[in-house]
Write a structure and sequence with these properties.
By secondary structure, this protein is α/β, with parallel strands linked by helices. The chain has 14 helices and 18 strands. It has two domains: about 120 residues, no CATH class; about 240 residues, Rossmann fold.
């Protein structure tokens, strides 16, 4: 059975789906979902690029920040501090963890000795690939928890963490509700089936928390504007905050604060698809602020399970729930400034000065990670602390710097 057939059957028996429910099927169905049918979706042969696809450079930067975080915790309780947890949620096949651990083992042996690593990943195929990817560091991995068919891909985060929870490009792939402001008030978008294909359908707000969250962040939608509301995003942050006993939460993703996200700049919303490195193949032209569709059918309804679905993260909502759960915001900045704050470019290259090809590759990777207009400015880094005071981390040297 295809995912389209499964969705059609589900709609016939139970009625239209919210977009959040549809996304959960399309991305995370245990057999037919986009992320479930492959161990790796990014890179040259995939549908999009991530920082990890540029080589080990990004992992080396993160290792430097992790080492500083470990040293801060050690300073606070030198007599009782023992193991340092690194929990990566949405870890995929483990490539980022491998890049981080390679550097930690080489440059920070004191940290490597006390590391306990847990990779949290919903995709069965990606988890199966982790053993070979992690390779020599396999002894650091804690026993994997059981993975039931979790709703909304929130994943299982272990409790009582002392160390770091890392989520790199995770939140943008959590299912969202989609709303549109009509002349008579807010309506929600549902996914229906007309007998041959999936279609959009307007309906009442499915959960009062949708309206409440828009009000909390100060969103003022005009008639005709669409927006995504990430209830799963704030729930994930809430769970992560409660799982963290002492340490840091690092979130790296693309998004905006509410004032910018819910504005005329994004009046059509941000829900998009990536397929063979094209974004929204059915939405190809833009005239001023108006999107000219080459198809009347939204790209995200085309061939469910075959393409990535993603939307920009509401950074204001993330900060609000983090603060409510007792986390302190230590930094919110473009990835460019996060990496510059670590000040490690020369260190990354010095070991390869006699290898011109490797040196060139690292320079190109660093350029892609840093330069505005690419991953450097589209990706934002949020770092929160819990029971660690308000230290000035190297990666947060620029405090709040957003484009």
């Amino acid at each position: 059975m295809s995912l389209l057939s499964l969705l059609a059957e589900r709609i016939r028996h139970h009625g239209p789906l919210t977009v959040a429910e549809y996304m959960d099927y399309a991305l995370y169905h245990s057999e037919l979902g986009y992320y479930s049918s492959s161990d790796k979706r990014s890179g040259q042969r995939g549908d999009f690029f991530t920082s990890v696809d540029l080589g080990s450079t990004f992992g080396k930067f993160l290792a430097i920040q992790l080492a500083e975080m470990h040293d801060l915790l050690l300073e606070e309780q030198p007599e009782t501090f023992q193991d340092f947890d690194l929990v990566e949620v949405g870890s995929g096949n483990g490539q980022l963890a491998r890049d981080v651990l390679d550097t930690v083992e080489k440059d920070y042996p004191h940290l490597y000795k006390v590391l306990r690593v847990q990779l949290v990943e919903r995709s069965i195929m990606a988890r199966a690939a982790q053993t070979s990817i992690i390779g020599p560091h396999l002894h650091l991995l804690k026993t994997q928890p059981k993975y039931p068919d979790l709703k909304n891909s929130l994943g299982h985060i272990p409790s009582g963490i002392t160390g770091v929870i890392l989520a790199n490009e995770l939140l943008d792939a959590l299912p969202v509700h989609v709303v549109e402001m009509k002349d008579d008030g807010l309506a929600e978008i549902y996914v229906d089936f007309d007998g041959s294909e999936l279609t959009e359908k307007f309906g009442p707000i499915s959960n009062p928390e949708i309206t409440a969250q828009l009000e909390r962040v100060g969103a003022k939608l005009q008639p005709g504007w669409r927006a995504e509301v990430g209830l799963n995003t704030v729930e994930w942050i809430r769970n992560a905050a409660r799982s963290l006993k002492q340490g840091f939460l690092i979130v790296i993703d693309y998004g905006h604060e509410a004032k910018k996200l819910y504005s005329s700049n994004y009046a059509h919303g941000t829900l998009s698809t990536y397929y063979q490195h094209q974004i929204d193949p059915s939405r190809e032209q833009r005239s001023g602020n108006d999107l000219i569709q080459s198809s009347t059918k939204p790209a995200w309804l085309i061939d469910p399970g075959s393409r990535d679905l993603t939307c920009h993260v509401d950074l204001t909502a993330v900060q609000q729930v983090a603060k409510d759960e007792g986390l302190k915001i230590l930094g919110l900045l473009d990835q460019t400034y996060f990496l510059l704050g670590l000040g490690t470019a020369e260190k990354l290259f010095q070991e390869d000065n006699n290898n011109d090809l490797e040196h060139l590759r690292k320079r190109l990777a660093l350029k892609t990670l840093l330069l505005p207009g690419g991953l450097g400015s589209t990706h934002k880094v949020l770092i929160f602390g819990k029971n660690v005071g308000t230290p000035t981390l190297r990666g947060c040297s620029y405090k709040k710097r957003l484009t």
